[in-house]
Structure formats: structure tokens, C-alpha cells
Amino acid sequence: RDRREAYQQAFIDTAPEVVITTMPYYTAYEEWLWARYPVFFEQLITHYTLTAYNGSHILWLRNDAGGAPAGPAMPAPVSEGGAITLPGNDTDRVMYYALTVQYEASGGPIPVLNRLPRFYLRADGAALGLYAQILPNDETEWTLVIPVFAGQGDVTLSPFIDGIAPQATLDIDGAEYRVLDVPEANDDLILWNYCSWKGETDDRCAS
To answer: How would you classify residue 15: left for phi > 0, otherwise alpha for psi between -120 and 50, otherwise beta?
Structure first.
């Protein structure tokens, strides 16, 4: 946790002019990292523009705008069972939500078992390849970037627990979202990542 926060803060403070990341087609871990380093990912897609790429890497250049301010925080409805709803996307390009979730995650009353379960939000309708986004068990508030393809209806994020921990609990206390201002060139990253998981099973990837 401390190393994650230190890394993300160092990235913000340093504000490098050039960033290189891994192409989603090259490794399955790219989207996995987005959820674990969400501050870095939000900074990357808002303050940098996807400029060049090859089969394994993407080059990003810091954009002149330096990342426009995100929209105001709006409450996201949470059902009795903890499912969160985000609005659909009626624009003609990818929309990016920064979703902040307040939650309580516990592995149960036996301390040694606290790290056995994994806590997730299953994302239905999001432009993501993985079926779920993780919520760290050592936090009580977490922000995830949720991209949504043009024309997609409402997105539902449902909590669930994975692992051998019968007394584990995950309670969603609240949620809010902001709409991020992201350069249109960066939409390619979302499509590449999505198609690296879906292959040609989705019409968006059948080119």
C-alpha cells in the first residue's frame, strides 16, 4: 500500500514529458494494473495523449492542456444488495467515469484469514476486458476508472467475494462518479484492451 501510494505520488510530482506503457495485446496484465494503480491510470489518460505504438509498447506525450478538470462529483445509485449503477453513454465516443466507492471489506473475525478473500465489483456493460475490478481489502474508499463505449446503456457494478472465507463480508456504503476529460486519441487504448480479451467475439473487434 505505501509503495503504491509513493509511486503514484512520485509520478504526479515528476510529471514526465514522455511515458511508455505496455500494449494490451502484448500482456494480459495491463488492465489488471489499471485497477491497482488507479491514480496513475487516471493521470495517464487525462494528462497524456497516445501518440505512437508498436506490437509491445505505447508512447504517450504530456498534453498541453495538462488534463482538464473532471466534472463535478455526482451520486451513483446503490441498490440494497450493493450494486452500483452508472449512466449509459449517449455520445459518439468512449466516456470515462472515475467511480469512487466507499466500502467495508472484512475477511472475518480470524485475523490470519483476512487476506484469503478477494473483493470485487463485477462490471456489466463497461468497456473492460476483465469481468471484475478489485477493491483492496486494506482500504475503505477506492476510485476506479470505468470506460463505457458509445451507445452503451447503463453500467452495473455488483460486489462479490472470491476465495475460501465463509465469514468474509463486503458492504458498499456509497458511491459517486466524475466524468473525465480524455483526449479522443486515447480511446484506442480502451478498444485494444477490450479486444485483447474478447477477440472477434465482439463486432468492435472484427476488423
So the answer is: left
